[in-house]
Amino acid sequence: MLSEYVVNDRVKNSGNDNWRPKYHFTAPVSWMNDPNGLIYFKGWYHLFYQYNPKNCDWASMHWGHAVSRDMIHWKDMPIALEPDRDYDNDPEGGCFSGCAVEKDGLLYLFYTASAKHGNKLYQTQCLATSRDGVHFEKYAGNPLISRHPEGALAPFRDPKVFSASGKWYMVVGGTVKSENPEGDGRVFLYESEDLYKWQYKGAILESKGKLGTMMECPDFFELNGKWILTCSPMNHPEYNKALYCVGGMDFESGRYTIEKMGNLDVGFDYYAPQSFLDEHGNRVMIAWQNGWLWMPWCQNWGPTGVENWRGTLSLPRVVSLSENDEICLYPVREFEDLEDEALEYENYEAGTQRQYLYPADAKSFRMELKIDVEKITSRYLEIGVLGKGEKATVIAVDLLQGIVSLDKSRSDLYGRGRMNCRVEMKDGKLAILILVDHSTVELYINKGRHCITSNVYPEKEQTECWIATPYKNAVIDKIRIVSLKSFWE
Ligand code: FRU
Fold it and tell me: Domain for residue 489, yes or no?
């Protein structure tokens, strides 16, 4: 039984940290980044993640492991992959990001082995398998793909494997030589009959100076007859860190025709998303809610190292397509199981004086607002969360221009900035879901048509939640505030 191997009972040691989220996954201790190997396998959801078990800095990547029956309540498992071979053992490398698939009852993990020999970087695509989902064996014939395609540069990583028309395919992120010394980003496609021998088919995404210098963590899947490519570009000119493309795919020729591009989440902290199918066949996505130091706003990943952990994963979000073929992301239904006490208001009148709202747990709640623009004479609406006096993370809605912003310039002592997002108001209506969880604030606008996710690091006493208009009044159709329980309890 898989549950015999659960290593850590977090119920007993949760609760003391100020910044540790209650309903977002964090590693038991130390550093975590990308989600890896997401899969529903033999009745359990498996979540692996980039992990440094030694301390709160990025180094020597392992695959941490957790399992769940519902994608919400997680249990810690023993580390799945350790860097222990010539090809992956390196303090500046290790077992980098990758994916999982099942074939004939066997779990296949594909990962990038990253190592330096001399000063030269080697990134190769490797395999480990498991029957029980607990013990993993690295394939003796590793690496499966020992070299990047001709003309590409050494950064070559993050395999994502899937099946289509009776064959296996893999997308891998990379970069080719260009005028830019850091290269020009690519997503490469490979094909296989048996998951062991892989044949290069070409690039399905080429930056050509427009989309970034290196594509990390690509994913490729079908949704409503379209093929969706997602990846995290480095140095995208507009800092789109979670790029998506909607298009048509011809696997015979390897040709991908892009019809639309967008951004999965315009917040400061949403990177390296990976998708999988849940037990009902829904496409679900989880990302790392942080960023890298090359992003201009990223300051040393915040202060959570003092609590001996660093790195948060997003809630699992269902992926869907709008009628205009735009991607929408919305928390999975299972998440409702964490709902606790609720407050509900109809025709709520907001004015220039701040009005305070009191969720039972002011650090861990969800707040839904249904707004009818016609009923509001004020141009702006502001909602403050995790506040105390002048400090707060502010969600500002400009109803005239149709702009929703997440403003963290007064949130804490660690990071500044404001992310703006232009939104459509269908028939004059706007729906906003705000999720607050100790050090994360997420906005889902119009059922996830736009998402804005950011970390903030408020002090313990920052527990105010308020609503106000800078001038004139506003009547809000509906407000529902629900406290959320910890999934560790
Ligand atoms: C993305 C990433 C991947 C890499 C991993 C290393 O956040 O840089 O490209 O595999 O992190 O931890």
Answer: no
Identify whether the C-beta of residue 465 lies closer than 8 Å to the C-beta of residue 320. no
Chain segment 288-325, per-residue pLDDT in tens:
999 999 998 888 888 999 999 999 999 999 999 999 99
Q: How many angstroms separate the CA atoms of 355 and 343, rounded?
A: 14
Q: Which of 456, 447, 454, 442 is nearest to 484 (CA)?
A: 442
- Give 243 Cα–ligand 1 centroid separation in angstroms: 16
Residue that terminates a domain, selected from 306, 333, 360: 333
Question: Using an 8 Å Cβ cutoff, are 281 and 229 in contact?
Answer: no
Is the CB–ligand 1 distance for residue 169 below 6 Å? Answer: no
34 as an active site residue: the answer is: yes
Q: Is the CB of 231 under 6 A from ligand 1?
A: no
- Domain co-membership, 226 together with 282: yes
Half-sphere exposure of 152 (CA within 13 A, CB side): 25
CB 216 within 8 A of CB 167: no
pTM of structure: 0.97
Q: Which domain holds residue 35?
A: 2-333
Domain count, the chain: 2
